[in-house]
Specification:
By secondary structure, this protein is of the alpha+beta class. The protein has helices spanning 2-15, 37-56, 72-77, 80-83, 100-108, 116-125, 166-171, 173-179, 226-243, 291-300, 326-337, 372-386, 399-409, 419-425, 446-455; strands at residues 19-21, 33-35, 61-64, 85-90, 97-99, 142-145, 149-150, 159-160, 186-195, 210-220, 251-255, 268-275, 278-289, 306-307, 314-315, 318-325, 338-343, 346-351, 362-366, 391-393, 413-417, 427-432, 438-442. It starts with a helix and ends with a helix. Bound molecules: adenosine-5'-triphosphate.
Length: 456
Amino acid sequence: MIDDKMEKIVSLCKRRGFIYPACEIYGGFANSYSFGPYGAQLKKNIKDIWWKMFVEDRSDIIGLDGPIMLHPKAWQASGHTEGFNDALVDCKKCQRRFRADHLIENAVGVDLEGDIPGLNKVIKDNNVKCPECAGQDWTEVRTMNMMFQTEMNGIDEPVYLRPETAGAIFVEFKSVLDSMRVKLPFGIAQIGKAFRNEIVARNFIFRVREFEQMEIEYFFNPEEDWETMFSSWLEKQKNFTRALGISGKNIREYEHPQAKLSHYSKKTIDIEYNFPFGHSELFGLAHRGDFDLTAHSKASGQSLEYLDPESGKKFTPHVLEPTFGVERALLAALCEAYTEEEVDTDKRVVLKFPKQIAPVKVAVFPLLKNKPKLVEKATEVFDLLKGKFTCEFDDNGNVGKRYRRQDEIGTPYCVTVDFDTLEKDNTVTVRDRDTMEQERVKIEELSEFFDKKFSQ
Ligand code: ATP
């Protein structure tokens, strides 16, 4: 039943132009995906809401758009070149590769991320079976750096595709201080692609090798009460999940135990969503102390201190890092919106997205495709609305089929132009996605009608 829901979502995404398996004409490529027209729009809407909520609506956070390839020294300083590793193990019988900590966690229920001797021991002691072929013959567990490497003309050391967007925020901290009149506490926010050479990409778009992140580094005076700030950030992250339509009952927090925390972190919490394949990390919030600024300052030889205008003191700010994955946000929004309902004797599938993230806001139909007067009027209505709301014109099949199609892509309203529009009172039928109720609205009042609906 659970896998069933995931399968249904994957199939709907492909059939209805949200998400396609990438490069299918070449037999697919490494579990990667392309976002089709509705997926691309949905993704954009999610990122727009985030940017508005965390950058435009706040006076203490500014935006940044840094490069995907940073100076190689930046990744050495941040510890990624040395330590951004995952542990892998291969089954000698079927040659399948696994992330060793995930294999052990599923088989034995213990989390040994980063503990290579521990992982090797548990595999041997428990005769762990291969989930694919039940074999029990394993290679030694070994680590693999997850950054993708490339080359750049004129640079004689390897260059990396960023495995997280946050790097550029720390690297440009000085430029921001020098150019903007920022006062602590303040944040720098960034949205962009990140690349990780995951050992196994799986669970649709949950774990992929190329994805997008929305990250904030929120800098503060280390003398400030960071715990209150931490709780308030956690609340803000949860507010964002509500904007995606996610119900509180499907969200839980996982606090990293002291033993698993990085040496510089005072606290890290994952916000987990109840995906059809189980609770898994959606977003994260970490206290990173002054680790990054201090490391970049040492490696670059530049001061990354802040001069407090009131006390005249210079110090290195501490930082909280709220991080959000775009693909995981989108997948959670899809899982939450996916609904099957019995209508008469029929089943209807509806994506009940919040109106703000729905890829199409209004669909406009002529009742019949072969009546030029109806098509002409419907085109007029479409032109009237399209500059203000994301609209779609649909004249394929009968109106019932068009409703079903719009339900499946989550369109909140459908507008039908019929013979009464032409012959009687210039009104159209507006049908509500969730209630399926219909009402007649005058064409000249439509724009205002939808303004009200979309501001509710
Ligand atoms: P996981 O434990 O699931 O590998 P992580 O703890 O390594 O995730 P972070 O380094 O905290 O993840 O990355 C920040 C956010 O980026 C995550 O909360 C998640 O939303 C997203 N993210 C990380 N890795 C991936 C991936 N491979 N595919 C899609 N999104 C990802």
